[in-house]
Amino acid sequence: MLSQKTIDIVKSTAPVLEVKGTEITSVFYKNMFASHPELLDIFNHANQKKGRQQTALANTVYAAAKHIDQLEALLPAVKQIAHKHRSLGIKPEHYPIVGEHLLGAIKEVLGDAATDEIIGAWADAYGVIAGVFIDVEEQMYVEAESKEAGFRDFKPFVVAKKVKESDVITSFYLKPQDGEKVPAFNPGQYISVRVTIPGQKNTHIRQYSLSGAYKEEYFRISVKKEEEVDPNGIVSVFLHEKVQEGSVVEVSAPAGDFFLNQENKEGKVALISGGVGITPMMSMLETIAEETPQRPAAFIHASKNEGVQAFRKDIDGLMDKLENGEACYILENPSNVSLCHFSGYVNKEILSTYVDSETECYVCGPAPFMKAVIMTLKEIGLPEDKINFEFFGPAMDLSTVDEKEKVKAQ
Length: 410
Description:
Layout: H1 4-12, H2 14-35, H3 45-50, H4 52-66, H5 75-88, H6 94-110, H7 116-146, E1 155-164, E2 169-176, E3 190-195, E4 204-209, E5 219-224, H8 233-241, E6 248-251, E7 269-274, H9 278-291, E8 297-303, H10 312-321, E9 325-331, E10 342-343, H11 348-354, E11 360-364, H12 367-380, E12 387-390
Helix pairs in contact: 1-7, 2-4, 2-6, 5-7, 6-7, 9-10
EC number: 1.14.12.17
Active site: 95, 137
Site (Influences the redox potential of the prosthetic heme and FAD groups): 84, 390
């Protein structure tokens, strides 16, 4: 339990953390990786290079300072981060390392303004916050392990099948090497894939949405091949070009708090995606078709062109199984306009055709696409509790996304 004095001191640092947060977290990661290079086996190097991880942590630290007297307000964010941590293999022994270097970074950036009293208060606060994360994550580890066919950490899986879905997306069917079943998951969740790439000093972990309904024999992920110059490209290019049927990769148990609400079996749902954001939507759509085909469902997908659009035949086949299903394909630059319902970008006219104020919406895609869709859904009159969305990578503040890019589908 934190003393009132500690709470007051930590809250008093919120304004400076709002301004200096990203500078502090950038110093934090630099110093921590210099002292503990083994942690580079866990952290996503691409998010580090793009600055997304630093910004996400800065936002978390600022929120912790602002709400240190009401930590329950942070619980939704804690659970979302904890899902990521559990799927990456973050353990209790990592938290003291993080605490040491976070406090050191605060002192380094703020200098004399970070008095011993402030550092002491933050040390106490960090201990409480870390304890919350450790407890929540341990519950998640136990839950993952206790499921039928569940497991706690990474487990070797064999690539049983590799299927090209579009010019840029390939699906990988992953079966447990030990011949066991795979644990059940909620449609929309993801797994972590850990690979060792020749010539790379560290292992690399990426999180990929499960792109099909639950099948006890395998997981399916569908990976977009990024450009090699993109930091994310190192893993996706390796998977596309080097990982073949019969290859072995390490996989975590499914995780994530973005998934289809299956309790509502009658209310209309809209699955809205841009680019590779289609992957969790495929899991949701297939689940609806198999388990609640009476549920009204709209599947709205935006792509640059026909070549990069994945799963068209699969979606049309699933629509045939639904009693009241609608598919809408939007292509930014179609070579043949007859192959899409709309050309250009997602807009209010399109969304209003398929969504009303009672529709439960799920949104996934590039941040500019999500910002455009979420803003438009709110304009239509959809309440916030009807809008569910998923970031690929660390959470972002959508208000910071470039307005000039906001309508792009991918």
